[in-house]
Amino acid sequence: MSTPKQNKTRTGVNRDFEANVASLLAAGPSGDGDLEVARAIAATSQKVSVDITTVPFTTVPADLFDRTFDDPDVAINTPELMRAFKAQLASKLKSIRQLINDNIPNNPSLDIGLVVQFVFAALHQGGGQ
Amino acid sequence: MKKFAQLAILATALLAKTGDHNIVSAVYAPDLGVVRIFFSDKLKAVPSSAETTVTLKSGAKIDASRLVVHFEGQGTRSVAVHINGAPVQDVVTQIAFSTVHFADDTTGSNVNSAVDNPGDGVIKITKLMQQIANTQSEKSIFASGLATTSSSGTAGAADVNLNSIDLGIPNLKTFLQLKKATAKEGDPKNFEFGLNYMSAIAIQDPAANRTITAILLDFAGKSEGTASKFGVNNIVGDTSVSLQSPVFDLGPRSSAHFRILGGFEGGSNRSKGDAPVDAPGFAPLKNVDWIARSKFGVEGALHVENPMKVLPFELIELRAGGVVRHLYFDELRYDMATDKVDKTTKGAHPWAQVDLKLMLGHTNQGNYGLKLTYQRGSLPPVFATTKAFQFGFVFETGDRTEH
């Protein structure tokens, strides 16, 4: 049983050290796929960044999952960039690699939140009702 | 790139205007004890547990004191409902919120949805994603062209790209492309249709993917024709490898990216159409048979919004690209002087295109502006020399969200 996330921003001075520790901790799948989607977007677009030293992780832009991929502040605005995003996501979520490749369209107008919901469902198929 | 005609998006926008906000998807993960809900619109505040009802298949409802409701992820459209305490043994069938306050200051009463298990959720969400029609691509400068005005006069043009027909086979798409104009120097005489299998490999090294984020692989089988007159037809296999850059940040709402492409096209000529193959002096036409071409190209795009309103444009989008095909065997060529396909050619054949889009403003229905295209070079199958401008009005449907 997971617990609700608390918004708590870290303000320590050793940010590099914290980032390294956080990277190691975040190396495995996060459970709900949110972090992997955010990191795959950040690997495809330098307009987006992810801070994994905060709990929960935070992104720039802050409302990333409310936007579409072709939003000007995300700018994944061609089918080719969508293919790159999917490749990045599949490399981070190997257990659902095939579902990502086969089911997410190369359509930049997709809601990011809908893709997040898809990833959440796909990751938990094994524990179905 | 802005959104183009998308019925699903428009339908969502219309629903929002009437205040008919809804739940797009609700999925229960038993292993986490979490119902995750994705709303059609942003919420102003997360519903309280007292406003939340989780119903089981037996008809029983989970006690509100066991529920913890909060925003999930980075935004206010996803909500997670945690069911604390002993694991739920029954099937969760419905989620309902007695009151939901949306960000546009509307309030929904009894906003509810059936809850899917993860397997059904994957199927339903996939269908939802597919319903959002593919953008009217402006797909790839490597293979496309437009023409309206050339040095030989002004004329109409056709530019059709269809590349989203779902064959039910993952990553395999059909495509159809028509580039045609009536102005002689503005007509690439390019018509292609076929199948394309797509794959991609992520570049995971953080240092490397600052420049290249993925390698894109395309394998296509296609028919190349001349659209109307001449009747030339080639059957070609097309393999290409692209290096895709990430999106580079150029400031608020502005960005750039590029793609480098290399590939090989091989096949054979199936029809010479009206080419005078039996006429005296045209013997080389008869020998045109096998096709072998290598190609190399680069494409880039620049997208700049104009928040300062210094210029009368809201958005400036520049796309530029070029590809050089090298023909290893003789292929047919259109001769503008005779208006016939009566030559052969081999060697290098470049193609370049620049698109400049200036969006002047927007309405509730979409964005409007001007588009200027310049193209020069030649395309298969008859490599007609093209040198043309296109100038026109563009209208893109879809909302222009301000965050």
Spatially, the strands of the biggest sheet of chain A line up as: 1-2
Structural class of chain B: mainly beta
Shape of chain B: elongated
The biggest beta sheet of chain A reads: 2 strands, antiparallel
3D shape of chain A: globular
Instruction: For the record, give the distance between the C-alpha atoms at the N and C termini of chain B, rounded to a whole number.
Output: 17 Å
Number of DSSP strand runs of chain B: 21
H/E order of the elements of chain B? HEEEEEEEHEEEEEEEEEHEEEEE
Assembly level: heterodimer
Number of strands of chain A: 2
Q: Which stretches of chain A are poorly predicted, pLDDT < 50 over at least 5 residues?
A: 1-9
| Helix-strand topology string of chain A | HHEEHHH
Instruction: Give the overall pLDDT of chain A as a whole number.
Output: 83
The helix tally of chain A amounts to: 5
Give a description of the structure.
The complex is a heterodimer of chains A (129) and B (403). Chain A is mostly helical and 129 residues long. Helices cover 43% and strands 5% of the residues of chain A. Chain A contains 5 helices and 2 strands. In chain A, strands 1-2 form a two-stranded antiparallel sheet. Chain A starts with 14 loop residues before the first helix and ends in a 6-residue tail after the last helix. The N terminus of chain A is likely disordered. Chain B has 403 residues and is mostly beta strands. Chain B has 3 helices and 21 strands. In chain B, strands 8, 9, 10, 11, 12, 13, 14, 15, 16, 17, 18, 19, 20 and 21 form a 14-stranded antiparallel β-sheet that branches. In chain B, strands 1-2-5-4 form a 4-stranded antiparallel β-sheet. A 3-stranded antiparallel β-sheet of chain B has the order 3-6-7, with no helix packed on it. The longest helix of chain B has 14 residues. The N terminus and C terminus of chain B are likely disordered. At the A-B interface, helix 2, helix 3, helix 4 and helix 5 of A face strand 1, strand 2, strand 5, helix 2 and strand 12 of B.
